[in-house]
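Reopening this ticket.

The earlier resolution said the output was attached, but the attachment link was broken on my side. Pasting everything inline this time so it's all in one place.
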Amino acid sequence: MADQKLKVAFIGAGGIAGTHMRYLDQMPDVELVAAADVIESNVERRCDEFKIPQAFTDYEEMLSSIEADAVSVCTPNGLHAPCTIAALEAGFDVLVEKPLAMNAVEGQRMVDTARANNKKLVIGFQHRYEARTNFLKTAVANGNLGKILYGRVQALRRRGIPNWGVFGRKDLQGGGPLIDIGVHVLETTHFVMGSPKPVAATGVIHTYLGDKPSSVVSQWPNWDHETYTVEDLAVGHIRFEDGSSLSIEASFAAHIEKNIWSFTLMGEKGGATWDPPQLFSDQHDHMVNTEPHWLPSGAAADPFRKKMRNWVEHVLYDKPTMAPAEHGLMVQKMLDGLYASATAGSEVAIS
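Inline output:
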């Protein structure tokens, strides 16, 4: 077992693929064998950088010709489903970046394909590997908060519209900040809450800055406003089968004091925040705030590294995954419900 190596190929060679490659390349039980990208210069650059022996511009050609065990899908959202399904059907285990797909119908097909082919499918949710997430998850599991009643999710940028990639194109991404950055804090909150089943969603979206030229000094200036078809701000509410609920706020651009990346939980016995990690309870007839004196940091605690390592150990050594595709599917159904409600102007059921 010690000499065993996981042979990994990549579909997509853009920014996030480089991050996957960098972490995997540092692992002695992993071998990077091939990469595919429709932009030839991208894949050649990555293969040169990480000494990957085989480069392709057609992922289907790659899947049919390589000797590998697993595939990392690092494409824009619109290609997650077709690339993942093709890799699963070709006999590879898969890690797909968040969100799982453009919608829950695609996500369900991905999950079903993995099951039908007896292959492992993992979703790229790195924030559940953070030390502060584990601190809150353990507190919830130990009953320190009692029954969770409510969560508040915030993934807010004051002016952070991406000026690279296709993040402003709904046809390729499925949406804007809700599906791009909101998904991260949403999935982490849902995970800490115990992954309750969502049953209904209410959502509202607004576009008021991204589709116009702007001279305001911002985080990433000069985005392509002419192709911008996603929301600037999304807000919504999810109800769960167990009676709990959460609200979500996600923005690429909003008139707020500063960027916010956090969540809050309120339970019958206590509450919590993620940033900073704190617990709130009543003790000795007083209201008490508790925070960890020390949390792991540095390379060993790097959540992205832990995400990649967990995937390798799940596929190569059959260890449990912390981010099963089924969790990604529940999150996708919540995103779908929020967008559907914004279109309908009323609450929608999540089946």
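Reporter confirms the inline version is readable. The chain has a mean pLDDT of 97. Residues 9 and 71 are 5 Å apart (CA to CA).
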